[in-house]
Amino acid sequence: MEYFQLFQPIFDAFDSQVALIDREGKIIALNQAWKNNSINSGFSKNTSIGDNYLNVCKTIVGSEAELARKIATEIKAIARSEKTESRLNHNSENFKLENPLVIHIKQVKQDNWFGVLIIQENMTKQMQTEISLRSVVEGTAAVTGKDFFYSLVYHLTCALSVSYAFVTECLEKTSPERVCTLAFWCKEDFGENFEYAIANTPCEQVIAGISCHYPRKLRTIFPLDHDLAKLNAESYVGVPLVNSSGTILGHLVVIDERPMEDGSTELSILKIFAARATAELERQKAERQLAYDALYDRLTDLPNRNLLSNHLNRALEKYRRDPNRKFAVFFLDLNRFKYVNDSLGHKSGDLLLVGIAQRLKTCLRASDILARLGGDEFAILLEDIQTLCEATKLAERIQQSLKSPFHLGIHEVFTSVSIGIAFSEPEINSSEDLLRNADIAMYKAKALGITNYELFDESLHTQVANRLSLETDFHHSLDRGEFRLHYQPIVSLVDGRVAGFEALSRWKHPQRGYVSPGEFITLAEETGMIIPLGWWVLQEVCYQLKEWQLQFNNFNLTIAVNISQKQFSQPNLIDSLIQILQTTGLEPQSLQLEITESLLMQDVKTTMETLRQLKVLGCGLHLDDFGTGYSSLSYLHSLPIDSLKIDRSFVQAIDSKGNNSEIVEAIVMMAKSLGLKVIAEGIETKAQLAKLQTLQCLYGQGYLFSKPLNPNSLFNWLVTRLS
Ligand code: C2E
Ligand code: MG
Ligand code: MG
Q1: Looking at residue 303, what DSSP letter applies?
Q2: Are 216 and 240 in contact (CB under 8 A)?
């Protein structure tokens, strides 16, 4: 039997009892656990190597007698090779805890040798765990929300027979090294929740993500944790509550005044409930976040539009009851915020918004409400003010406070806000009206861009309302054929000959009459209508000029058409243009396109390419309103343009004595050196004409020669001029 002795150390390594018997039942080998009778059952008491196990079974009486009989039957069946293994449970059903056993019986065959291996396990510990688990699961299954944590700590203390249990949540934002309990069971009852610092406590490791169990001598291990002394704590088990993304939200702890056996059962049970507790914590957090998001802005922690509305409504109520309780609403919008976002990125944009919020706060009293409405818009509610002056002073204080730069990482950014202010007035019906008024005033402040703050008055409202109705009408204007073209002659300043015309759109509004392009071109750009309008203009103009060229037999006449930036960047610009020229039969040389400097500021590469293609096609190109934009003189020479149109503001600056012509002079000189033609716009007086002639500006247009005329009038004008 030497052979089996080789395996003795392996057998001995098992906590379960292991015996090897031969076909007849004679015990060949026993492990140490068996010899120690570790599970305290009749099967291992007083058995030793050489005994017959089947006989041992016969001697067993009492509660295990039935099991013994079954074991003997199974061994015999396996010996007869009717089966190869068998498993018998004893006392492990119905959660009775008297000596639950599991017996595994297994055939062992090696060459000619045949034997049976018997493994006996005591299931008390597993069963205990299972029972505890079951009681906690049953106790907490139907509970959610805050009650879940109370239920959990209560059932844990019962199931594990410990003195204390608690769940905590990390106080992340305020202080990462502190936690507060969500439920605390303290011996016989729930204790009051408390907050504590985790340094030098057993919780420190747990909150770092490591499950810990200290079955005894807890206070000796953590002498600096004075709370442990107060609780008379001896043993501790704690597990972290970690969510799926690895964030530690809190922890779950049981503490006992007595030592634990080894803490492993408690640990495995806590681990099982940690998952559920984590889910519950996350759910609560999400709920809290939802409630927060409904009223606050996450980025700046300021009240949002909803909460501001509540405050405004309350202020409005107070004011209605007592008209002395006046208040003001500020609508603030950052100037050029988009540039920060676009050039430095959204992170910097966010930083700037947070910085602005902080600066604004420093300008306010504790009772004032500062809210973020979204994007770069903020609002302030200033209650109980006596005079308008208090509001304008605040506006000035705000502008002043924003003068110093913001440091966004490595960048230094200067910014300012446009402020619109509306005051409580008896006619105001709702908080929305108030905010809208402040918003309207803000737009005016932004447009003026001087003081950067503006007070609301009714006329502003009328302007906005007018614009709104204009916008609605504008939508159908093109379909209803409400557009007309007027033509203004461009003449040679040398001999007064007609060189061509500029086509200018007019909107004939059914009620308002002619609406000037100053009012509708921006509308058209904002609504996108500029594109169909632009094509209509081009087509119309080409037909018209062709007709006049034929009527007057003058094919030198040209026409200039204003092209908006949006139309210019249409990918089909060139193709559509070719098509229009073909159908109208107009030579490309007769058509001149007027573009503005702002267009050149856009995508330089594609702009240059389009300009080049237009040049190849043969069209003329005018740079309109020259001098008002920001075009870089450095690339003017590389632009394939033919003419500069001097903006009329420079021409009109020339007084009756011909003074004030420096800018015009400079432009003419520069154009000459670049080989460009110059057309002066807005010539109204003889003095202006004379000056331009001395400066050798070759072309001009203006009321002095003719106002823009409708086609019939222009025809007549041409008749007198050309004959
Ligand atoms: P613009 O291209 O610079 O056109 C010249 C403007 O100066 C015209 O104003 C014209 O009526 C005005 N003007 C001409 N001579 C004189 C003068 O001696 N004194 C004064 N005070 N003004 C004079 P209008 O027609 O109101 O057009 C304004 C602007 O609207 C145009 O400026 C042009 O940029 C734009 N626009 C007009 N029609 C169209 C169009 O069909 N498409 C596009 N995209 N823009 C257009
Ligand atoms: Mg023009
Ligand atoms: Mg112009």
Answers
A1: B
A2: no
Going edge to edge, which strands form the sheet with 377-385?
A: 369-374, 377-385, 326-334, 417-423, 453-455
Q: CB of 517 closer than 6 A to ligand 1? A: yes
- The tokens describing 309, both together, are 């509305």
In short, whether 681's Cβ falls inside 6 Å of ligand 1 is yes
Matching CATH topology for 2-122 and 126-293? Answer: yes
So what CATH class is 126-293? alpha beta
CATH number of 2-122: 3.30.450.20
More confident: 78 or 466: 78
Q: For domain 483-722, which CATH number applies: 3.20.20.450, 3.40.190.10, 3.30.1240.10, 3.10.20.310?
A: 3.20.20.450
Distance 442 CA to ligand 3 centre (A): 29
- Indicate which atom in ligand 1 lies nearest the CA of residue 594: 2
Q: pLDDT at position 96, please? A: 55
Indicate the top mutation candidate among 490, 501, 504 to test ligand 1's pocket, ranked by most ligand atoms within 8 A of CB: 504
* Residue spans per domain, the chain: 2-122, 126-293, 305-460, 483-722
3-state DSSP call for residue 9? helix
595 lines ligand 1 (CB under 6 A): no
pLDDT tens readout for residues 504-513: 999 999 888 8
Which protein residue has the closest C-alpha to ligand 1 atom 34? 562
| C-alpha R_g of the chain | 46
Distance 707 CA to ligand 2 centre (A): 14
- The string of pLDDT tens digits covering residues 306-352 is 999 999 999 999 999 998 999 999 999 998 898 888 888 899 999 99
* Predicted local distance difference test score (pLDDT) of residue 472: 82
Contact 645, 624 (CB under 8 A): yes
Which run of H or of E encompasses 138? helix 124-140
Right CATH for 305-460 from 3.40.630.10, 3.90.350.10, 1.10.1370.40, 3.30.70.270: 3.30.70.270
CB distance 259 to ligand 1 below 6 Å:
no
Distance 54 CA to ligand 2 centre (A): 115
pTM of the model: 0.51
**Residue in 562, 565, 622, 701 to alter for ligand 1 test, most ligand atoms within 8 A of Cβ:** 562
